[in-house]
Specification:
4% of the residues lie in helices and 47% in strands. It contains 1 helix and 7 strands, in the order βββββββα. Strand 2 (24-30) and strand 3 (36-45) form a beta hairpin. 21% of the residues are buried. The mean pLDDT is 86.
């Protein structure tokens, strides 16, 4: 799994039929120190995340283990909205402090 920040949404009028109704998010990856990385990922949103929230993503075949995604052509899925991240007893991120 990987931590990422929601940067926006991705929409498409022409897509695989199995993706109809699936919300796609543009995510920017975050390292263990809370620094934004240059890598981006598009992921199916399974939890209702919004722009600027930090999320946990599952990638690869694990993204298709989520109920309802078994037959979808996805390789990344948002599986949680993060409340806090601590590294070595140091607060890296707090959703509460962002708002």
């Amino acid at each position: 799994m990987q931590i990422a920040r929601v940067r926006g949404t991705v929409s498409s009028t022409q897509k695989d039929p199995s993706l109809r109704g699936v919300k796609l998010l543009l995510l920017q990856l975050i390292d263990e120190e809370g620094r934004i990385q240059p890598e981006y990922e598009v992921a199916a949103d399974t939890v209702g995340a919004g722009v600027d929230e930090w999320v946990l993503i599952s990638r690869g075949s694990a993204a298709r283990q989520i109920y309802g995604n078994e037959q979808r052509p996805i390789d990344a899925a948002v599986v949680a909205i993060i409340d806090t991240v601590y590294v070595e007893n140091r607060l890296i991120y707090s959703k509460k402090e962002q708002y």
